[in-house]
Structure formats: structure tokens, C-alpha cells
Automatic annotation (TrEMBL):
GO biological process, one term: proteolysis
Cofactors (names): Zn(2+)
Name used for this protein in its record: Peptidase M3A/M3B catalytic domain-containing protein
Keyword entries, A-Z: Hydrolase, Metal-binding, Metalloprotease, Protease, Zinc
GO cellular component: mitochondrial intermembrane space
Chain ranges of the Peptidase M3A/M3B catalytic domain: 267-730
CDD domains associated with the record: M3A_TOP (cd06455)
Keyword Protease assigned: yes
Cofactor note as given: Binds 1 zinc ion.
Entry similarity comment: Belongs to the peptidase M3 family.
Amino acid sequence: MDLQQNTSPAVWRFQNSTSPTSLMRLFPLLARPQRLPLLFSKISLRHIHKMSRKPPQLPPSFTTTPSAILSQTSSLISSTAALEDALSSTLTPSTATFSNLLTPMLNDDHAVSKQTLIIRLFSSVSEDKDLRDASRTAEEMLLKANSEALMRRDIAALVKAVYEKHQNGGEKLEEEDAYTLFKTHRAYQNTGAGIEDDDVREQYKAAVQERNEVLVAARKTISESDEGIFFTREQLNGVPTSILDAMKTNDDGHLKATFKKGHMISIMKHATSARTRKAYNIAKESRFPENVIRLERAVELRNSTARMLGFKTHAELKMQDKMAKSVESVMEMLNKLRTELKPLADEEMMTLFDSKKAYIRDNGTDEDGEDMKRLNAWDWAFYARILEKERYSVDSLLISEYFEVNHSLEGMLKIFEEIFGMVFIPTDAPVWQKDVTVYEAWNAEDQGGEFLGYLYLDLYAREGKYAGAHSSLIQPGFVTSENTRHYPSSSLITSLLHTPSQPTLLLHSELKTMFHELGHAIHKLVTHTNHQHGCARDFVEIPSILLENWIWVPSVLQRLGKHYSYLSSEYLTFWNAKNEGERPGEVLPEKLAQDIARTKHVNGAHAMLYQVFLALFDLTIHNAGEGGAVDTTRLWNESKTEIMGLGRVDSIGQASFAHPFRAYDAAYFTYALSKVYATDVWVSHFKADPMDKTTGLRYRELVLQPGGSQPELKSLSNFLGREPNDRAYYGEVTSTPGTKSGYHDKIYRISYSLNAPVSS
């Protein structure tokens, strides 16, 4: 959502001032002593030159109160309603045009979104519970107002008239305006404006309102949770000491293992006690029983409102704004993945079960009964780690010592700079929490040097913060009513476990998550459109999943990897206190980088089948016909056992499956589809030379910059020179080294052709 327009010329921000305050502003790292070791790695001559330029737009403010949020929200809702009333009273279907109807509506949408995106952000990041609660109340108000606005027959009739005039050749529009008109018309038709019967309209409004309330309550339950399970230190044997030392304790001295990702990964990968892993897994999958009721009610309401709109199911309704053509085509794609990957997944499972048997033979186990005779859900991560260490010489804890979070992030941004022609400058700006850091994003000089927007990094876990890693748009990019550019602000938000006196080290899987979420944030910054657009849900993950490939490239890993003891004298002291013997080398060893790369597709079939399981669960519950009440607990457990093939332990895991409560209802399949299409892009254009700037800039121009301003399949096809297909994916995932059966030498050894016919 960026348009290179109205960019101020270079202006010396500080001219001849050398006061401490000016230096702090010019070099904001000086105001953060804990990050001084990174100062000179951050600032190059190019950065210093760039920092002499003043952004044409100030960063947003996050200073507010709960009452101000509610007052502001009410005012915004009222102003939009007043605009629509004015349009309805002054225009008729014969006089309405894009410029006198859509343009003022879009300008209002832009102005409102600048404020509401920040209002909604507080619910997931604020330390202040009252602010979080006000944010959620505001969200309910906005959802209700948006639903009512989209049900206005008067505005819908005007939009329909403009759309039909354009379709009949009566009003010529630029391509983006035409597509915006198409999406606006579709939105009114698919959200209630077309319901003629007044009684049905009232039923629809009531159902949508109840659905929104149910979803907000479910999201709050997940976001606010600080649940955990207590263990003795002995029961957590094998878990890294740094994790144990940071855990809270109860009066009995037991350690609290929360269900946040840092604790979950550490326990499931490293706890040597199978009983501990089992207890933790069962407790994690037993949370939020109230959300089971909420999910089933939300599904019932979604499917019933879809039928009121003339669709068979909610899933059919949701496909209207996707790249996928139909529910049936998505089901076909998911079932193909399930069928084709099953033999390889079975082989992966046999390999891990062999690893389990060998481990038990050599070390014993506290398992008993059937658990010892099979591979269970709580076994997978533990024995996968052992397999990687023994077969591929990959020690996840040793590797993490080379990926201190701040240094790794700087390396990631540098890679984005090289590939996409960007520059990131650390800056001092208002933030919602003191640990948040901010960057200015600019085009590189050879790309014009224009300002792009602001990037916010909120990395560490805290009470009340949503635990999942994600990227939020803070302000959109668009062209204003004065024909000037408003620049976007985006964010990377994670919940890493952090102890101020220690380095925060990333596991390789966390490094992958960082690349993924930064991919979302960068996409928001480089999108280049006149209006703000949401992308199709089954497109939006493709750019981020594509970027995950870079953390499997040995040369990239070596660029990112620097042993933390070389980053500061404090970190060296910390390492010396924890270790004896020779200090590791400064740079990630080449062999270790190559060993990591060899594990890229290890257990890849199992990982994809897990995505298929979640996608089929989501699609099935939202594709129930009339009278088809869904027992989500039964479906969850039966599907998981059937698809994953692990020992069955019934749970209510669907209650903590956050995506159907957010914007991924009937759309979780996007992760599987995006993996397939992203692999196509990677293999056909980036794999041979991941750092090729020409390819990166072409990808930025053809795929990232259009955003949702045109059909997303068109963007992908423009870049690929054809429609995307699944050939590269099956060729990649079956290329795992060291498989025993030679499975990948069979039907799926595909000679990949850029011009091959489309197969999915």
C-alpha cells in the first residue's frame, strides 16, 4: 500500500547540531544502551545519509485512555453514518458515479482506518487491562456498525448502479478503481443488503451481532490466558536451564510451565520424561472448554447467515473472495495432499518410532502400557530433535547460540534490503510499550530513495499480550483526498521469553517464524496502491511462506549466525559463567549451516498433513448444510487420529485453535495452498540464486506492490509467466536425504518445467 508520491526532498534534520539530545535522535540506539553492541552493525554510510532525510509523515501516536477509545470509536461510527446519509439523500442510481459515490466513501474508509487499526491493536499488545477491554468493546462497536452499514439498501442500490454502468461501458475507470468497485459491490451483495424480506433481515442482523459477540469473547479468552501446569524441577529434566530459571514458582517450589510457545517448544522437545510431556500436552489440549460452545455456536450462526444470503454454507460464501474457485476444488487439493503424502508420512513415522525404541533401549522410559508401544503426539518433537542430532548432526540448542534475536533481526532486515531494494533506519518514535523498537523504511537510492513507512518490532512476552506471532497493520497506505500519500505502518509482534540480563536466543524454528512474520510486515510496507485493500486470504500467506526458504540457505544462515558471546562484553561474561572450555567460533560454522539445510524437508510430509488436518477440520465445520449441527470435539479427535496416524488421546484442542475465531474461518487451507504455491515461486525463480536482486525487485513489483488492487492470481501468474501449480512442491518435499524406502525415487521424481501444464 505504497505510492511513491509527494515525497519530500532530502532535508538535513539536525544540520550542525551536536547536542546530546540531537545525537540521541540521530542515533536512537544511544538511548538504548543494552543495544549498543549492534550500533555499528546497524549504521552504514548509506544509513547515515538516509538519516539526514526527514520522513514526509510523522509516526502515529499511541497515547490514549479507555474512555477516549470509546468516545473516538463512537465519533467515527457517527461520521461514517452521516456521510452515507448525505450520499443517499443527494444521489440517485441515475446520478451516482464512482467519483461522487465511491470516492467519498473510500476517503472516509481511509481516514477511519488510520484510527481504528490502532484502536484494535491495543487488545492484543497493551499492558493495561482496561485499555485492552476498551479496545475489544470498540471492536464490537465497529463490527456492529460495519455490518449495519453493509446492509443499507440505499447505499447498496447506488453502488449497484455504478457497477452496472461500468459493466455496460457507461463509465470508464482505471484498473484499480474498477476492481475496487467490483469488490465493493460484492461486499454489499454478500453481507445482507440484498435480503428483501424484512423479517429475514432482522434475523440476519441479530445473528451477525451474536456471532460477533461470541467471537470477541473467544478471542479474549485465548489472548488473556496465562494458564500453565506445575512441575518439579526433576520432572522437567532436560529442559534448558535458562528456561527453567525464568519460570515462576508456587509456594511448594514447583515451576509453572505456561502454554506460551517458548515453554511449549522447550518442554516438548527436551523434557526427557514422557509422562511430563504427556501431562503437558493433555493440559494444553484441555484448555478453554467455554470456547467449544462458542465455536459451535459461531459455526451454527455462520452457516445460518450464509443460507439467508443464498449460499449453501458459510464455506461457499467465504470462497467468493478467494483465489480458490470453490469449496470442492479446495477439498480436492487437500485430499490430494493427504493421499500423495501418506506413504512418505508413514515412512517418517516409522523412522521416528525406530528412534523412540532405540532411545528407550539405551535410556529407559517412565512410559507404560500402550503409550510405550506406539508413537504419540507428545513424542513427535522430542524424537524429531534426537533424529536431527544423531542423523544430521543438528543440535538445536547449540544452533540457537548463534542466533541472538537483535543481531538476527538486523541480518534479516539487511537481506530484505538487498533483495527488495529497501533501507531500514532505526528511529525514535512513540510506541505502545517501552521495549518496542521502530524503523523508518525507505526505498534504496537506486530505487528512487522514497519513504515507504514505519516498521514496529514488539518481540517479548508480557502479561495480557496475545501469545501468537503475527503481523498487524497499524496504519494503511493510500492516496488522500488532497492527492497526497499517506504512508503505512506495519509491525512484527512475537512473544519471545526474555530475561533482561541474558541474551535472547532463537531456535531455528523461531528464526523461521521471524522471517515469516517479517514477510507480512514488509508486504504491507511495499504495497503500492491508491486505495487500501485487503488481500485474498489464500494469497496473503504466500509471500511470507516464500521467505521461509531463505533460512535454509547455508550462506544466509552464516550471515545471520554470530555467536552471542561476540556481541558484547556482558554476553561474553554470561557465556563464561555458564561454560567451560574453548569459546566457540564467532561465525556459524559452514558445516553446521549445511547440516541445518539438509533437514529442510525432514518430517515435511508429517508437517503438511498437520496443516491438512486443521484445514479439513475448519472447512468441514463451515460446510455443514442446513440442520447439520457439528460435534466439533468428535470431528477434531477422529480427524486428527485418522490423518496424523498418532496414538489417540481425546481432547478439546479445537477450543484453543485460534484461527477460526479470527479471520481464517473456512480459510485455514490457505497455509497448505500457500506452501504449495510459494514452493513453485521459490523453485522456479529464487532457488538458484536467492540473493539475486533483479529477481527480487521483479517479484516486489509484480507480486507485492499490487497487493489486493487486482486479482491475486493475476499477480502470481504475471510473475511466473503461467498459473502456479503443485509440481515443484511434490518434487521438493520428497527429496529428503536419507529416506529408507526410496519412495521419492518413484512417481514424484518430477522433472520440473516452468511451462508445464497447470495441475492444481
